[in-house]
Design brief:
- This protein has about 200 residues and is of the alpha+beta class.
- It has 7 helices and 11 strands.
- It has an 11-stranded antiparallel β-sheet with strand order 6-5-4-3-2-1-11-10-9-8-7.
- It comes from Neisseria subflava.
Length: about 200
C-alpha cells in the first residue's frame, strides 16, 4: 500500500513538474536566436499614429550580429543608416559615424535600440525592463513583454514578438495609443557581410 502511494505521489509529481521541464524557456529562445553568426534581411515598418488615419510606412534592410551590433538602413520614405552597439547609436552621414539628431529621428533611436535586444535574443537585457511570457516552441513561438519599470510603463502597454529560429514580427502597443508593426522578410543567416557592414559592426 505504501509502495503504491509512493508511486502515485511520484507520478503526480512528475506530471506536475513535466510542463516546466519541457517548456521552451526565454534562455532557450536566447540560445536559438544567438546561433547565427549574422542575420541579414529586409524590414517593413507600419506605424499607426493615433492622430493619423493612415499608417506611416518605412522600409529598408538590416544586418545583425547577435550580441554585437545592428545596422539599420532605412531606404523609404527617405534614406538613413543607423548603427546600434553597446556603446550607443550612431548615424552615417555619408563620410563618418556621428551622433544622430534625436528630433529628426522622431524617437526611433529608442525603438531601434530595443530591436537590437529583441532581434539578438538578449532576454536578460529585456528582463530588466519587462516581464516576459513565452508560449510555443522553437519552431513557432510568441514572446509577450509587459513593462515593469517606470520608464517602460510610460512608453508601452505591451510588446509582442513572433518567430521561429529567427524573429519574424514585432508589434509595439504604445501608451499614447500609437502602434508599430515590424515585419521581417528575405532573411538570410551566415551570409558574408559586405565591406561597409563588416567595418561598421
Amino acid at each position: 500500500m505504501k509502495k503504491t502511494m509512493k508511486k502515485t505521489i511520484l507520478s503526480l509529481t512528475l506530471l506536475i513538474s513535466a510542463p516546466a521541464l519541457w517548456a521552451f524557456s526565454p534562455a532557450e529562445l536566447a540560445q536559438t536566436l544567438q546561433k547565427p553568426q549574422n542575420v541579414q534581411g529586409n524590414f517593413v515598418q507600419q506605424r499607426q499614429l493615433k492622430s493619423l488615419s493612415k499608417p506611416m510606412t518605412t522600409s529598408g534592410s538590416f544586418t545583425l550580429i547577435p550580441q554585437k551590433g545592428l545596422l539599420w538602413k532605412m531606404q523609404k520614405p527617405f534614406e538613413t543608416t543607423l548603427r546600434v552597439r553597446s556603446d550607443g547609436i550612431m548615424q552615417w552621414n555619408g563620410n563618418q559615424w556621428v551622433n544622430p539628431n534625436a528630433s529628426k529621428l522622431n524617437g526611433q533611436s529608442r525603438q531601434i535600440k530595443l530591436f537590437l535586444d529583441l532581434l539578438g535574443g538578449n532576454t536578460q537585457g529585456l528582463e530588466k525592463q519587462f516581464d516576459l511570457k513565452l508560449n510555443g516552441n522553437e519552431k513557432k513561438w510568441t514572446l509577450t513583454l509587459t513593462p515593469k519599470t517606470a520608464i517602460t510603463r510610460q512608453i508601452f502597454n505591451r510588446i509582442e514578438i513572433n518567430g521561429d529560429t529567427l524573429v519574424r514580427k514585432i508589434e509595439l502597443d504604445e501608451k499614447q495609443g500609437d502602434k508599430t508593426t515590424m515585419q521581417f522578410n528575405q532573411i538570410q543567416t551566415d551570409k558574408a557581410l559586405d565591406s561597409f557592414s563588416r567595418t561598421a559592426l
